[in-house]
Specification:
This protein is mainly alpha-helical and 128 residues long. The mean pLDDT is 85.
Amino acid sequence: MSNSTKKAPSRSKTAQPTPALSIIKDIHRQTRRQYTAEEKIRIVLEGLQGEQSVAEICRREGLNTNIYYRWSKEFLEAGKKRLAGDTTREATAPEVQSIKAENEALKQLVAELSLENRVLKKSLRADD
């Protein structure tokens, strides 16, 4: 059998990535830059102004153009909903956590004040 007729070993389409590739992907996901809402708005508005091309803005910001266009679409859709009077929005996880913490603190305060109120009422009755 000649070398030209040998078949390369076939790779299974369901083969799992090697552990090293998996680790690299995890590190990449964890170190990926997270843009704040203000940064996204600034970048989208720069693109809408048209003073620079979207490609230039994305290059400067280290951003894929697909991401820019997704943000732009979301920004314009949110504006359209707002102008139509739809003011509801989803709370972010940090907002929910903050509200839960505030709620817990308020419950604790109500419990303390109720207890103090009860103690004061009992002391007033004892004085009579």
